[in-house]
Amino acid sequence: MVIIGILARKCMIFSEIVTDLQEQLKKDLAQIRFLLKKNPGMGYARIVEIGKEVGKKYDIKLIVNFPKEGRIEEFEMYGKRDLSLIIDYDLKRFPIDREIIKQKAKEMLGDIQTEDAYMYENKEGVRVFTNNWKIDILPHSVHIWTEFNEKVTAFCNWLLENAYPMKKR
């Protein structure tokens, strides 16, 4: 019984990370909004700092991205889209075959496209995408450029469980 609980928890590491991030950003939202009004650079720096603090708990670098103008003012979406998780800069190869990642992406995300990406200097990567969003999956990091709906979250949970040596400190 205990083993099942541990396995279920381990499989939900992405969910745990983003929930933790969302809670911390929400807790500091008044300060963030004040800083953004006063000095947008300082506001963004606080968001980055919160991401780093949460990432340390999981032994990763967690970056909150704002790839399009105006998104930093969409406070209710903080930690719910556009994140980068840097796992280990030294990794160049996945511990599983890229084809497994592509197949699982199609199985879990439905109508998407996949392709090999960043294939140079003995490195490898996978891009999962539609016309509206993408997920860049590299052996050392994953960059999610979309909102975390149920399917994206489930796929990222699977990905962190199977393609990355993730653990909470």
Question: What does this protein structure show overall?
Answer:
The protein has 169 residues and is of the alpha+beta class. It folds into two domains: 13-62 and 71-81; 98-163, no CATH class. It is built from six helices and six strands, in the order H-H-H-H-E-E-H-E-E-E-E-H. Strands 1-2-6-5-4-3 form a six-stranded antiparallel sheet. Strand 4 and strand 5 form a beta hairpin. The longest helix is centred in the N-terminal third of the chain and has 18 residues, at 40-57. The chain is globular and about 45 Å long. The model is unreliable at 1-10 (pLDDT under 50).
Q: How many domain units?
A: 2
Residue fraction in strands: 15-25%
Name the helicity range. Answer: 40-55%
Shape: globular
- Taking all Cα atoms into account, the compactness measure Rg is 16 Å
* Helix/strand order: HHHHEEHEEEEH
Task: Enumerate the spans where pLDDT stays under 50 for 5 or more consecutive residues.
Answer: 1-10
Number of helices: 6
SS content category: alpha+beta
Number of strands: 6
Q: Report mean pLDDT, rounded to a whole number.
A: 90
For the report, how would you describe the main beta sheet? 6 strands, antiparallel
- Spatial arrangement of strands, main beta sheet: 1-2-6-5-4-3
Q: What distance lies between the first and last C-alpha atoms, to the nearest angstrom? A: 23 Å
